[in-house]
Amino acid sequence: MKKQILITGGTGYIGSHTAVELINEGFDVVIVDNLYNSNAGVVDGIEKITGIRPLLEVFDLCDSVRTNDLFSKFNISAVIHFAAYKAVGESVRMPLEYYRNNLVSLINILDSMKAHGVENLVFSSSCTVYGQPEKLPVTEQSPIQPAVSPYGNTKQIGEEIIRDTTSSSNTINAIALRYFNPIGAHPSGSIGELPTGVPENLVPYITQTAIGLREELKVFGNDYNTPDGSCIRDYLHVSDLAKAHVVAVKRLSDKKNKKAYEVFNLGTGKGVSVFEALKSFEKVTGIKVKYTITGRREGDIEQIWADPSLANKELNWKTGYSLDDCMKTAWEWQKQVTKSNL
Ligand code: UD1
After folding, report:
1. Which end of the chain is more exposed for a tag (fewer CB within 10 A), N or C?
2. Which CATH class is domain 202-233+269-340?
3. Angstrom distance (rounded) from CA 274 to CA 23
4. What's the DSSP call for residue 306?
5. Which of 132, 148, 180, 181 to mutate to test the pocket of ligand 1 (most atoms within 8 A of CB)?
């Protein structure tokens, strides 16, 4: 039987783009998702782009029996683990749900990997582990700071669980990918980000304001110690990010990894302010976005961007899309979603 790559959270934003890139590279993909924050229709979008419909198993990975059964049913060679809750504010209100969901599912996956001799894991981590760094850009050696939210803490603890598991097991190898800020959508307009309710993230808020779903963008602070006073992030295109997962899976499968547990930053290496992001959107779409400047958002980091040189060198990966391309594809997607009312 052909080996399969298991994508947990594969109908989500980054998971679906990764499914596309894997299928395009000839991999056989199985998706597991509980559809808590996504919908099964995403599989249609993946099929439309690739011509291949990945298998979708719908259940919750906190169910250890069903997780183990999944590993019995398929011939899995690697797992890419995206499935997690990801809203920072919500995690402050519902810490136990976040710890349970994000950590129990990870433990169940690791248990099943051990039980079924599956050796390769790629983990979806975040630059949130660095907090507000003292030195910019951040390298993988930059100190980990105490997490400001339960969500961030689940990423830190998740990394530790994986690190300890790889060092205690002779079989499991893992790569944790620390994402900076993924934005944009697949250039086909067939898949993209589908925030439920009011978006928390900047780019969906911009596109929803531009299309008339939101009254105005609130810029969270213009009094930061940055050139234009707004926060700075490292925005990268989601398809660039997705491609890094393909490279990571190949690195593990080909046993090219240098250690049982490796960590890579994934970003462009360039910091962009909220106002610069907004200007880029307005430039490529010709639409003026109404905004007001409000107070700072609690827990926001003033500025952070990646030093992606380790990923450039070791994974032979770098971003290809420009900020303008990101905004263009985000806008095309927003128009598509609004038209078809997805
Ligand atoms: C946040 C999390 C990150 C998580 C990501 C996933 C923190 C510090 N970071 O990223 O760990 O992986 O969400 O969802 O918690 N902004 C506005 N107005 C808006 C929305 C955002 O001005 O309506 C600004 C923010 O202040 C920030 C920038 O836009 O400066 C980006 O915000 P956002 O897209 O929410 O991403 P992060 O906060 O960087």
Report:
1. N
2. alpha beta
3. 34
4. B
5. 181
Beta carbons within 8 Å of 73's beta carbon, 6+ residues apart: none
Q: Say if CB 153 and CB 147 are below 8 A apart.
A: yes
Residue 341 has pLDDT above 90, yes or no: no
Report the alpha-carbon distance of residue 192 to residue 121 in Å, rounded.
24
Residue 335, pLDDT > 80, answer yes
24-48 residue pLDDT tens: 999 999 999 999 999 999 999 999 9
Residues with Cβ within 8 Å of residue 148, at least 6 apart in sequence = 128, 131, 299
- pLDDT score at 126: 97
Are the folds of 4-183+235-266 and 202-233+269-340 the same? Answer: no
Share of the chain above pLDDT 90, in %: 95
Q: What is the dihedral of CA 47, 252, 244, 42, to 10 degrees?
A: 20
Nearest-CA residue for ligand 1 atom 27 is 231
- Which pLDDT tens digit goes with each residue over 241-253? 999 999 999 999 9
Domain positions in the chain are: 4-183+235-266, 202-233+269-340
Cα–Cα dist 338/342, whole Å: 7
Nearest residue (CA) to ligand 1, atom 36: 201
178: left (phi over 0), alpha (psi -120 to 50) or beta: beta
Q: Active-site residue among 98, 151, 179, 205? A: 151
Is this structure's pTM higher than 0.85? yes
Cβ-Cβ contacts under 8 Å for 286 (sequence gap 6 or more): none
Q: Which of 202, 217, 302 to mutate to test the pocket of ligand 1 (most atoms within 8 A of CB)?
A: 202
Alpha-carbon Rg for the chain, nearest whole angstrom, is 19
| Residue 151 designated active-site | yes
The CATH H-level (homologous superfamily) assignment of domain 4-183+235-266 is NAD(P)-binding Rossmann-like Domain (3.40.50.720)
